[in-house]
TrEMBL record:
One of its GO terms (molecular function) is DNA binding. This is Arc family DNA-binding protein. It holds the Pfam family FitA-like_RHH. It comes from the Bacteria. Residues 4-41 form the Antitoxin FitA-like ribbon-helix-helix domain. It comes from Duganella levis. Coiled coil: none annotated.
Length: 82
């Protein structure tokens, strides 16, 4: 069942930007608004940053510990310039 959605107190600049975008897409303001809502609600949820941190820590723990000193870094730079 379809229904209506009323949005009150829209900033005039926001409405103008919506109207401009609608015109660029050949849609009415209402259809553009619906399209924006559809796209926003169909996006997958943002991943939890803690998940990425845990993955990075696990990867770092699995790699051998290598310490570079300034001479090592300078040598690598020179080798890359050849």
């Amino acid at each position: 069942m379809k229904t209506n959605l009323l949005i009150r107190n829209i900033d005039p600049d926001l409405l103008a930007a919506l109207a401009k975008r609608a015109g660029q897409h050949g849609r009415s303001v209402e259809e553009e608004h619906l399209q924006i809502l559809r796209q926003a609600l169909q996006r997958p949820p943002r991943p939890d940053p803690q998940h990425f941190i845990a993955q990075a820590r696990a990867l770092r723990a699995a790699l051998p510990s290598i310490v570079f000193n300034a001479d090592d870094i300078d040598d690598a730079k020179r080798a890359g310039q050849k």
